[in-house]
Amino acid sequence: MVVCGLACWRCRWLLPLLLGLAIIMGIIALAGRGWLESESEPYVQQASLWESCTRGEEDLNWICESLMDYGWGRAAAATYLVGFVILVICFALAVIAFSIEILRFNFVRGIGGLLFVVAAFQIIGLVIYPVKFTEVIPLTGDNMFSWAYGFGWASTVVVIGCAFFFCCLPNWEDEVLGNIKPTYYYSSPERAPYLN
């Protein structure tokens, strides 16, 4: 019977795998044009982390304006991007930590601390963007923060979860490495007559 709990040697790659998933979601958020979109037809508003685009109800061409012309746009993009770069570094460190026997638990807790820094940077960027966007950019029609913005938050939630696990994992070092001897419970026939 195979048991794979929280601290299991066979399950050690789950945390780097989750960090890889957070990286993929971060890439989608950085490249996606769906941070803000029109909620219903006519679709006249669309924005990414980098630019805001509008068009007339009958016009097929988008007119785009760079958000990098605004201080808050640069701040939102920079904080989210810095968090993403640190996340990629944490992923590389996690792969190294779980691949090399000697280094594994020496800096796992440090990776967890860095992941909290990643989450802080990403949350700052994800909060600056909608607050300042709705204050500064004139919105046309009914709009919603859409799928790419959601991927940014999903990446941040996964990073926060991984940060907690990386910080707590050294507490179960012996269980993960298999250094604990199994406990056998045996009672002699004299002490347990009902077993006869």
Write the SSE topology.
Layout: H1 14-31, E1 36-38, E2 45-47, E3 51-54, E4 63-66, H2 71-99, H3 108-136, E5 143-145, H4 147-168, H5 173-177
Antiparallel strand pairs: 1-2, 1-5, 2-3, 3-4
Main location: other
Membrane topology: Multi-pass membrane protein
Subcellular location: Cell junction, Desmosome; Cell membrane; Cytoplasm
Describe it for me?
Pfam families: PMP22_Claudin. Belongs to the TMEM47 family. The protein has 196 residues and is an alpha+beta fold. It has a single domain, classed as Butyryl-CoA Dehydrogenase, subunit A, domain 3 (Up-down Bundle), CATH 1.20.140. It is built from five helices and five strands. The chain has helices spanning 14-31, 71-99, 108-136, 147-168, 173-177, and strands spanning 36-38, 45-47, 51-54, 63-66, 143-145. It has a five-stranded antiparallel beta sheet with strand order 4-3-2-1-5. Strand 1 (36-38) and strand 2 form a beta hairpin.
Taking pLDDT < 50 over at least 5 consecutive residues as the criterion, the unreliable ranges are: 1-7
Using only CA atoms, what is the Rg? Answer: 24 Å
Strand percentage = 5-15%
The geometry reads as elongated
Number of domains: 1
Number of DSSP E strands:
5
The CATH topology is: Butyryl-CoA Dehydrogenase, subunit A, domain 3
Oligomer: single chain
Order of strands, main sheet, comes to 4-3-2-1-5
Query: What is the level-2 CATH architecture name?
Result: Up-down Bundle
Indicate the CATH class: Mainly Alpha
The share of residues in helices is: 40-55%
Q: Main β-sheet: number of strands, strand sense, barrel status?
A: 5 strands, antiparallel
